[in-house]
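Here is a complete protein record:
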Amino acid sequence: LSARAWNWARYWLFGKVHPSVILGEGHVAGHKMLFYADSVQSLQWDEQLRAVWQVADVIANVNEILKKRGIRLVVVLIPDKEQIYRELLPIPGGASRTIYRSSCLVPLENELITRAVGVVNLLGPFRESAASDAILYWPDDTHWNEAGIDLAVQTLWAYLVNHP
């Protein structure tokens, strides 16, 4: 508890962040964004390390088991804050923005569709909303705020209505 309190105080009083946190460049609706270093690092993983096809295989197997029991599976792909506000991520010295690969959620969505698994990918709606300067995550946290929750619910509801 004291470590959390100190990290909070260090940021709000002195503008310093814990080494596992990265301060974003620029603002969203007037707010600085904080990102987790591990999540930023994962945007640099190559396709083999991401292993999208293996994840899709596991989900497809679970889907088949559930189908036999009369249960419908709908997978909701949830993007990290770092994927939504990637333009705010700092670029290490001498590198280019291309070090941050595109999200693995799109290829995963395609793999799941190919395997006839119901899937809702929140990446597109979240990126679209963020492009209009919307804050969908708490600026100093990785969780959705009310706007993010509302957008996720609306997107999932639209899918369920259109795919009974």
About this structure: DSSP finds eight helices and four strands in the chain.
